[in-house]
Amino acid sequence: MNRFSVKALVSIGMLSSIAYVLMLLNFPMPPFPQFLMIDFSDIPALIAALIFGPVAGILVELFKNILDYFMTGSATGVPVGHISNFIAGILFVLPTYYVYNKLKTKKGMTFGLVAGTFIMAIMMSVLNYFLILPAYTFFLNMPAMSAPEMRTMIIKGILPFNIIKGLIITTVFMLIFARMNTWISKQKSLKSAA
Length: 194
What we know:
- This protein is mostly helical.
- It is built from six helices and two strands.
- A hairpin with an 8-residue loop joins strand 1 (27-28) and strand 2.
């Protein structure tokens, strides 16, 4: 089991709060359905993973979604969207963390972010097809979508949206990472020394 220091726990709590606020500042992308929103809440989770390890990144993703569910609720009454956001965040953050941890360069971070984007986009397409879209229609008491309708929704909406979202987050994170790389490395070394 991963044991965190008090400083790590406080940092994870602060990064979770920042992620929650960033989650509230979401916005739609015009060609895609209204329920697909872009936000930058995965960035604090990625910072937590880089400094404190992958479990910290998962915890930030978990806490921001729990906070958002209790503060804003869910249209379905069940946190289907929050579970979906949690899974998407993990599918983006973990591959990025592991690729960067192997390469430890700026190019390695870029490659990790792009890999995280495509892994998240492909896996979320599969999960939407088999679990998430059927769960939404079930809990909203809507007629179930046919297989061709779901395929069209995923190919024309969900897959390209997740790729674009991941690339936007990649661009923003690389701008932040260029400025914070030294600080993140220092925090990571302080954590390993403790």
